[in-house]
Amino acid sequence: MQYKKTQCFSQLSYVKSATIVGALLFSNLFINSAMSAPVENFGQNLSGLQQAFSQKNVHILQMGDSHTAGDYFTEQLRKRLQADIGDGGVGFAYPMKVNGQRTARHGYEAFGWELTNSRSNQPADYSLGGVIASPMSRASALTLTSQYYAGDSQDAKVMVKGNAGQTVTVSDKYGTRQLSLNNNGWQTVATTIHFPATFQADSNMNIGGFWLSRQGGGRVSAMGINGATQDYWQRWRSAVAQDLASSQADLVILAYGTNEAFQSDVSGQIASVQSAINKIRQGLPNANILIVNAPDSLKSTSGYCGTRAVNLDKVQSQLRQVAQQNGTLYWSWQEAMGGNCSMKSWIAKGLGRTDGVHFSREGYEKSANDLYDNLKKLLNNSNATGDYYSASTRNNITNDIHRTYSSSGTATITNRPANQGRAVICSTDKCSQLKN
User: Fold this and answer.
1) Residue 41: left (phi > 0), alpha (psi -120 to 50), or beta?
2) Closest Cα partner for 78 from 97, 92, 65, 94?
3) I need a labelling partner for 329 at 20 to 30 A (CA). Which of 322, 357, 372, 384 fits?
């Protein structure tokens, strides 16, 4: 650190200033490195997810922007989950390679197939995920490859759009077979594939992706689009809940907010997240939902803390609000980084990229470890049989809350007034309202 002498300060002043600034920087780095963020539960019953872990058959589906599309964060979640309960396979795979995005454990070889992405081509009939692949002719070949799972067999459900009676041809070690469509429009067809596996279809058919799994174990699906915001879901087909049902996910992570933070108008964000939550609950009524809030991000890295994205504070506040109102799980990525003004220190430590938005592999892995550790802590420490009651509407009325207790000691609410809509957390001895 160099200082330029002026008439206002002596050399001793520069030394003191440098010492103070250096101490502050060191203190900030030390505090940030020790930070961790809890996974908060605003009202979900966790018994289903706990049972999935105990039975060693867990599917986590993460949907989001480039933080998900890079598959570093999700790959670390995948490693941690599979170290605990075994390898459950690939999870979700887009229909073919998406330029600028990474897949950690599988790849593609495509001849005569075209990709359409809802990021840039909106007027299309997109299935869940917002990317579709179309063959130019029946001779067009699309091959799913994997060095990681080379020679492995996995159950496959193909999201495909076509007409009843049409077929998808699959060729692999098991030979060539035809998968018939029973209906018109989007549907799933199932088979067992052996890597590598090649798919062919008629030119008027579309493939939206693959659900790939083994019998048991853990799998983490990365369904992210570079530049995505939560309202991208509005570009996908209205019956996207049916596609969610096909995933059989136990936990759905919504990891948006970074791109919204750079927008000048975020007034529609809450409605977009609410719509996504409604669709998840329609398609996966027994799944838990986890909202991951946007991490600290910078419009400019100049200065001590840099300049934060213009609407980051508002986006983060709104995401926490919608998590509370809907009784979901919630994790603050920024808190895990060390709080406001943490990205600059993460960059200095090699955990953040110099663009002030993205992370290095090490940064994504550190973040994913924090989330996984705190999710497991929540699952291990929670009495998930009904500790929480949450309502869809909220107000400031605080009286006339009546309690009864089951034999297990879990508090339940009875005789709740019709106008009492505020969320309440109950323990065995009292009920208290959420702050917001």
Assistant:
1) beta
2) 92
3) 357
Q: Which tokens is 215 given? A: 């019998």
Strands 288-293 and 329-332: parallel
Residue 151 tokens read as 């020679």
**340: alpha, beta or left, given left = phi > 0 and alpha = psi -120 to 50?**
beta
What token pair was written down for 38? 């809890």
Helices 269-283 and 240-247: crossing angle in degrees, nearest 10, is: 60
Query: What are the tens digits of pLDDT across the range 352-407?
Result: 999 999 999 999 999 999 999 999 999 999 775 434 333 332 333 223 332 222 32
Q: Please state, in angstroms and rounded to a whole number, the distance separating the CA atoms of residues 23 and 29.
A: 10
CB 189 within 8 A of CB 160: yes
66, 219, 237 from 363: Cα distances, Å: 14, 21, 34
The mean pLDDT of 3-31, rounded to a whole number, is 37
pTM listed for this prediction:
0.83
Please check whether residue 210 is in contact with residue 129, taking contact to mean a CB–CB distance below 8 angstroms.
no
What is the distance, to the nearest Å, from the Cα of residue 185 to the centroid of all Cα atoms in its chain? 27
**Is the peptide bond preceding residue 295 cis, with omega within 30 degrees of 0?**
no
- b/e burial code for range 279-290 (CB count within 10 A of at least 16 → b): bbbebbeebbbb
CB 47 within 8 A of CB 385: yes
Query: Which one, of 207, 215, 276, 224, lies nearest residue 248 by Cα?
Result: 215
Q: How far apart (Å, rounded) are the C-alpha atoms in residues 207 and 131?
A: 9
As a whole number of angstroms, the distance between CA 73 and CA 265 comes to 28
Q: Is the pLDDT of residue 219 over 70?
A: yes
pLDDT at 384: 53
How many C-beta atoms surround the C-beta of residue 209 within 10 A? 27
Confidence of residue 122 (pLDDT cuts 50, 70, 90): confident
CB 138 within 8 A of CB 200: yes
Residue 406, token pair as written in the block: 């089951």
Count of other CB atoms within 10 angstroms of residue 278: 12
Backbone angles phi, psi at 31, to 5 degrees: -65, -45
The rounded distance, in Å, linking the Cα atoms of 90 and 146 is: 9
